[in-house]
């Protein structure tokens, strides 16, 4: 199949295309004025991408797609042992993987030790497409293990894993984009995909907003699981992005944020300490 045989080209092409489209949108129709240096933030966030890519290539040479191929060859997992059309297995696998990522995201907000890792993502003082790739290397490794486990259990076809990962990367850049989407269009879009306005709420300094809107692809997991919040309390132009305990840009350099899980204060953000409803402090 073309997608499997040309996986690196497909991934890179989709990444570059979406990155360029969102970057142009941020330049011509920004949603908010940035509060810190864009050049400095992009150096940090894209530096993290390079570090994470290198680590994943070393530790997980076959990655999730390779695991899917092995699972198919050895008849591991549900869809490799039940009579279901290939297209049905592909569609259901993408849906299941998306739900698993939603649950994983909630887990990283619920467990204090995992929240320590996830803080790096939320400590960004602005919100743009590079924020969507700003994850601690240890979190990326844990996420890969979870994804591989789901792929094996489900017996996800390799093509479904590629589709899911391409869509996840694309939507992560889009829904973190500092792009103005007219409210009427946003209202329609968020019925089928997580929009920037929907996900921006998740990056508020208020814990009760941080612990909402966990979805990356589908907006319906939040609606179904009761974690959906329509708008930020202070409005999109007035809301503060980031975490209360990290407000000094000089303390958020590349090396310092890599050390954040071990040196930074967690604040009152972990769900099992405050609850999703929470308060606004």
Provide a quick synopsis of the model.
The protein has helices at residues 2-5, 7-28, 38-59, 63-73, 86-110, 112-122, 137-154, 158-175, 183-189, 196-200, 207-210, 220-225, 254-258, 260-263, 271-274.
Describe it for me?
The protein is mainly alpha-helical and 281 residues long. Helices cover 59% and strands 0% of the residues. It contains 15 helices and no strands. Helix 2 packs parallel to helix 8. It is globular and about 55 Å long. The C terminus is likely disordered.
Key features of this structure:
281 residues; mainly alpha; 15 helices
- Backbone shape: globular
Order of helices and strands: HHHHHHHHHHHHHHH
Largest sheet: none
Instruction: Kindly name the structural category.
Output: mainly alpha
- Return the domain count: 1
Uncertain spans: 275-281
Fold topology:
Elements (H helix, E strand, L loop, with lengths): L1 H4 L1 H22 L9 H22 L3 H11 L12 H25 L1 H11 L14 H18 L3 H18 L7 H7 L6 H5 L6 H4 L9 H6 L28 H5 L1 H4 L7 H4 L7
Helix pairs in contact: 2-8, 3-7, 4-7, 4-8, 5-6, 5-7, 5-8
């Amino acid at each position: 199949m073309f997608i499997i045989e040309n996986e690196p080209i497909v991934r890179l092409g989709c990444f570059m295309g979406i990155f360029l489209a969102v970057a142009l949108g941020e330049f011509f129709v920004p949603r908010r004025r940035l509060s810190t240096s864009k050049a400095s933030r992009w150096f940090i966030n894209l530096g993290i991408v390079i570090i994470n890519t290198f680590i994943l290539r070393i530790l997980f040479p076959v990655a999730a797609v390779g695991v899917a191929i092995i699972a198919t060859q050895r008849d591991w997992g549900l869809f490799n042992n039940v009579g279901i059309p290939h297209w049905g297995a592909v569609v259901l696998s993408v849906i299941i993987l998306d739900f698993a990522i939603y649950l994983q995201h909630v887990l990283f907000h619920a467990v204090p030790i995992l929240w320590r890792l996830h803080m790096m993502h939320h400590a960004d003082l602005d919100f743009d497409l590079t924020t969507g790739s700003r994850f601690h290397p240890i979190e990326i490794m844990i996420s890969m293990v979870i994804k591989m486990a789901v792929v094996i259990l489900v017996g996800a076809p390799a093509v479904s894993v590629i589709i899911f990962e391409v869509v996840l990367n694309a939507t992560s850049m889009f829904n973190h984009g500092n792009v103005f989407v007219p409210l009427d269009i946003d209202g329609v879009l968020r019925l089928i995909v997580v929009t920037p306005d929907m996900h921006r709420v998740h990056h508020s300094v208020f814990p009760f907003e941080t612990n909402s809107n966990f979805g990356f692809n589908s907006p319906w997991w939040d609606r179904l699981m009761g974690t959906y919040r329509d708008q930020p309390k202070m409005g999109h132009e007035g809301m503060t992005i980031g975490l209360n305990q990290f407000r000094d840009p000089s303390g958020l350099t590349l090396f310092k944020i890599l050390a954040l899980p071990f040196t930074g204060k967690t604040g009152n953000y972990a769900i099992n300490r405050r609850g999703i409803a929470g308060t606004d402090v």
